[in-house]
Design a protein that fits this description.
The structure holds two protein chains of two kinds. Chain A is an alpha/beta fold. Chain A has helices spanning 14-28, 52-56, 68-80, 99-106, 109-112, 142-147, 159-171, 220-232, 251-261, 276-288, 310-316, 320-330; strands spanning 9-13, 32-36, 61-63, 84-89, 122-127, 152-154, 176-181, 188-192, 205-208, 213-217, 238-242, 245-247, 264-271, 297-301. Chain A starts with 8 loop residues before the first strand and ends with a helix. Chain B has two domains: 9-312, Rossmann fold (3-Layer(aba) Sandwich); 313-347, no CATH class. Classes of the chains: A alpha/beta, B alpha/beta.
């Protein structure tokens, strides 16, 4: 992993951090190209790729037909023959349309072929509810891909993580799913400006140190958990750990935190059953069972789809108040 | 064309030899499967040799192909080594995929062979992507997808055709219409009589050729390759052929009679090509016998190589998942061996 020598940072949004990573990697490597629905002149439905078609041309910032199985498959074929495609699937809910190419081709080619095929593809997609987009445009599906062997899955929560992890994903010879929470595109933070700055896939970040309870949070819930931790300061000391990568998962960092606090809350917007939460809890139980002073708690979507009407959507989406309830239950 | 330029007498003999090699390889695979030496599923290419050889003889060595579950013919036509293929069929460490893929997943990306494929219809998007890469890099190559008549009913095949046509990619699509999609006749799976008419929907050339005639396939694919290289986009070639064996070895084949197979055998692609070359004075009966005998030796040696090749070590199962390994795999694998040695035990 390249080490950043220049320590300067700039305040930027999550969206701009992603765009910066794309721009820097396209400048660095001619094999990198973007492909997806409306990623060109339109700039992407969430404006992430805005301006890149002007800079790099429509061949390297390629609009596709509405044809997820076709263009994800083409990305896989391009990657298998040495390119570094960054494919945008507009909403993670559409991943099912292209699942065959991801599950049976992208994930398996290297292994089935005895290790001979590099698969340097990155698939960017958006997740999460909160904008009244209803059940087919609000899902959080990252658990599927973190579960499926042969795929790496990352879900950044900050501009720094977005830039560092996306650059690592693009440079990786393994397939990486890059999950963007659409509710945090406007989130601001400090982003290292060095073009050599990357973050290793598979390393968690302790976003805030604390003594009484470990909150393992992802995506939007990282920011909400940090705000909650500020509110609880003096009452409960909360440590917030962002795994950043869902697979590989940094078990050591999480267990280390629970060994200190003795309590675990896992907050992630995926549905609760068989989920990301369950995996984090299982790893803590396997490796740090005797550090636990209270039953681990899960905060997520209670196994429903995401409904349209705001009162219904607010009801099922996990929020800071739910993390608070979980903390109260164990502290 | 590469090493098999069918426009020369030498190239025609090489094409004949490869067709014979495919036949001999798959006849042998059939026996080894029946004897229990090959695990899993085996789908044989016998009867369809003119399609793979006709198409690959129109390609350059560095062109890409994608294959199907019935891939042995494509591998041999593309120039892969029968020894390492047979070792793969037997699940040996020296096979093309170190024993991880087997018959259905033989691949050699460096040789332009992007894999046999167990998913019907998955190859055309991959070939489209390979063609996209060629286009982006500005290289003088093409990508060709082989797929069956059954795959023409798959959505992702049509998505691949649309992408390749819309972007004018250097791709060639070859339908191997062997009359059956698994165990159902082609006419029960498609409304079209000529599957190449699918091309009309994408405004690209579509042509149906005799898939029992290696030169007919070669001419169609050569033209398609030229068109692709001229920047005029993809072509859809349907090669009408027949598989002599079942969908898989062991298939009881309730869907056809032996007489149907015999009818097609009268137009056997190897026999008819040999007769044509003989009539042109390019090969004698004796020379053909000698060629067949050499091919038998080649395949016998491949079997010996495969039998003698080492089995993979059980722990090799944990290798090759990623370029940059995920620590989980080693950790989970370690827990299977409580004492660090054999799996199981008393602890």
């Amino acid at each position: 992993m390249a080490q950043a020598t220049d320590q300067r940072t700039a305040t930027t949004t999550f969206r701009e951090a992603i765009r910066t990573a794309l721009r820097e990697e396209m400048e660095r490597d001619d094999g990198v190209f973007l492909m997806g629905e409306d990623v060109g002149d339109y700039g992407g439905v969430f404006e992430v790729t805005q301006g890149l078609a002007d800079e790099f041309g429509e061949e390297r910032v390629r609009d596709t037909p509405i044809s997820e199985a076709g263009f994800v498959g083409a990305g896989v074929g391009a990657a298998a023959t040495g390119m570094r495609p960054v494919v945008e699937v507009m909403f993670s809910d559409f991943l099912g349309v292209s699942a065959e190419q991801m599950l049976n081709q992208m994930a398996k080619m290297r292994y089935m072929f005895g290790g001979k095929t590099d698969m340097g593809i990155t698939i960017r997609t958006t997740e999460g509810g909160g904008m009244g987009a209803a059940s087919q445009h609000s899902g959080t599906l990252h658990t599927w891909f973190a579960h499926f062997p042969g795929i790496k899955a990352v879900a950044p929560a900050t501009p720094e993580a977005a830039k560092g992890l996306l650059k690592s994903a693009i440079r990786s010879d393994d397939p990486v799913m890059f999950f963007e929470d659409k509710m945090i595109y406007e989130r601001e933070g400090e982003m290292p400006t060095d073009a050599d700055f990357t973050l290793p896939i598979g390393e968690a970040s302790v976003e805030r140190e604390g003594e009484d309870v470990t909150v393992v949070a992802t995506q939007r819930l990282v920011g909400e958990s940090l705000s909650l931790a500020d509110e609880l300061e003096g009452d409960v000391s909360v440590e917030v750990v962002d795994p950043r990568s869902l697979y590989p998962l940094d078990t050591d960092a999480i267990v280390e935190s629970v060994e200190k606090t003795g309590r675990l809350v896992v907050a992630d917007e995926s549905p609760l059953s068989y989920g990301t939460h369950a995996e984090v809890v299982a790893r803590v139980v396997e490796s740090g069972f005797f550090s636990l002073d209270a039953p681990p708690q899960r905060v997520g979507v209670p196994d429903t789809h995401i409904p349209f009407s705001p009162p219904l959507e607010d009801e099922v989406l996990p929020q800071a108040a739910d993390v608070r309830t979980a903390i109260d239950r164990v502290v | 064309m590469g090493t098999m330029n069918i426009e020369t007498a030498e190239g025609r003999l090489e094409a004949l030899r490869r067709m014979c090699t495919i036949r001999e390889f798959d006849d042998t695979a059939s026996e080894l499967f029946a004897d229990g030496e090959i695990p899993g599923f085996v789908h044989l290419y016998i009867g369809e040799e003119a399609v793979a050889v006709g198409a690959c003889s129109a390609l350059e060595d560095d062109d890409y192909i994608t294959s199907t579950h019935r891939g042995h013919g494509h591998c041999i036509a593309k120039g892969l080594d029968p020894e390492r293929m047979m070792a793969e069929l037997l699940g040996k460490r020296d096979g093309y995929c170190k024993g991880k893929g087997g018959s259905m997943h033989i691949a050699d990306v460096d040789a332009g062979m992007l894999g046999a494929n167990g998913i019907v219809g998955a190859g055309p998007p991959l070939a489209t992507g390979a063609a996209l890469g060629i286009d982006q890099r500005g290289e003088d190559r093409v990508a060709l997808a082989f797929f069956g008549d059954g795959a023409v009913a798959q959505g992702q095949v049509h998505e691949a055709l649309n992408l390749a046509a819309t972007w004018s990619l250097p791709a060639v699509f070859v339908i191997e219409n062997n009359q059956f999609g698994e165990g159902t006749p082609v006419e029960e799976q498609h409304h079209l009589d000529n599957l190449s008419e699918t091309a009309e929907a994408y405004d690209i050339p579509g042509i149906t050729v005799d898939g029992m005639d290696v030169t007919a396939v070669n001419e169609a694919v050569a033209e398609a390759r030229t068109r692709a290289r001229n920047g005029d986009g993809p072509t859809l070639v349907e090669a009408v052929t027949y598989r002599y064996r079942g969908h898989f070895e062991g298939d009881p084949q309730p869907y056809r009679d032996e007489e149907d197979v015999e009818e097609w055998r009268e137009r056997d692609p190897i026999e008819t090509f040999f007769q044509r070359l003989r009539d042109r004075g390019e090969i004698t009966e004796e020379e053909f016998e000698a060629m067949r005998s050499e091919v038998e030796t080649t395949v016998e040696e491949a079997v010996e190589y495969a039998r003698d090749a080492p089995e993979p070590e059980p722990e090799d199962a944990y290798e090759d998942m990623f370029a940059d390994p995920a620590p989980e795999i080693a950790q989970f694998a370690e827990r299977l061996r409580a004492d660090g040695g054999e799996r199981g035990g008393d602890r």
